[in-house]
Write a structure and sequence with these properties.
single chain; alpha+beta; Nucleotidyltransferase, domain 5; 5-stranded mixed beta sheet; 3-stranded mixed beta sheet; 18 helices; 38% helix; 18% strand; globular
Amino acid sequence: KQVESLHPRPGWVELDPEVLWSQFIGVIKEAVQAAGLHMRQIAGLGISTQRGTFITWHKRTGKPFHNFISWQDLRSAELVNSWNKSLLLKVIHVIFTVLHFLTGNDRYLAPSFLTFSTHQTSMKLSWVFKNIHEAEEAAKKNNCCFGTVDTWLLYRLTKGSVYATDYSNASSTGIFEPFTKCWNPTLCNLLSIPMSIYPPVRDTSFNFGSADSEIFGVPIPIMAVVADQQSAMFGECCFHPGDVKLTMGTGGFWDVNTGEHLFASRGSLYPLIGWKIGEEVVYLTEGSISDVGTAIKWALEIELFTNVDETAEMAQSTADSQGVCFIPGLQASGDDPYLCASFMGLKPSTNRNHLVRAILESVAFRNKLLYDIIVKKVHIPLRTIRADGGVSNNSFVMQMTSDLINKKIEKPANVEMSSLGAAFLAGLASGFWTDKKQLKKLRRMEAVFEPQKDSEEYRPAMDAWLQAMKHSPHW
């Protein structure tokens, strides 16, 4: 079930916490019933959630101060612009550049080129304390709680007795320092965010307590809490350094397992904690692209086709897009809030097949750009590449991506990997499985895409697309 987004003002994107809660409970009950099981047979619950969407609430009453503020929300745009132009940020860059030069410690590299974006939780949280008086007053009395979706669900499931998050969700907020593994006091001080609001951070695969028996009729142990992309990585069994996961859903996410090493990189890649299980901490490097599933869904809504399954065949039915380029911009951009999607190169002979091919090509071209950055910046030999998410069902995108990066890409039989990852993590914590070797045996592959064309064959089309992209910013 989809939780409908609310748009109370232009650029604002919110979720109603009560709607999210009721749908969450409803889906669990339906899933158990559909499996022909009873609640008392459930060994444990694993929760995988969207990242960066957050809420604040009163510690004593449990009453939210506002709706969930989505990761897509743009209300902090003015704050972001003023900070990115500020003298203070330039001074911070200089200080940390010098520290990195003197120490060689990568911990100082990320702050040396820190820039804020509307996608970051930090700026929207700063906006909350500047604009919502009740939250500000509660924080002064240590009565304000902050939580991403996982923390809120955990709090509600346990009737307020458990207030926590895990390392994967915390590191995805941009407020949690992955090097020191703690909430970042320097950043919070800069942005006037009180340190008292943050939840304790627990292992990803961990006994968080039990759901109150009134909710499901029996107490169900909550054995894992994990962010969606990290969960998909675990579900794909990308357990070794150099393993790569490509998720193509609403957006696209490339994640590389970097083992115990944390890579900070200027620009398109950012470091995350993948998961923490006991003493084991696994780090990831992630890059993302927007308008993957979003663009395909939009094309369906305007009736460029009647069924998503037709799109690969439509794209393959024409030799090329006839010079038509699709510029992504349907999803909010943190770098350019004014960016909008567009087609360039339209001609009288352009038909639906050309438009569909242009949309799918733009996904493959951006996969290629991000892959090249990963190869250049991440100094670990890349091993397997495994794809998941709804768009991984599109054979045209998968084959073209394989051709462009000249690598084999595996696609599992089940592409809903975030759910599977949460189940794996909960199963390990509850003793249902004893180790990762058992999980690997459960993997089922549906297809393997191997390079069939030389990437140079795509060069004219990709060059034209890159040229079109240069004309599109700040529209």
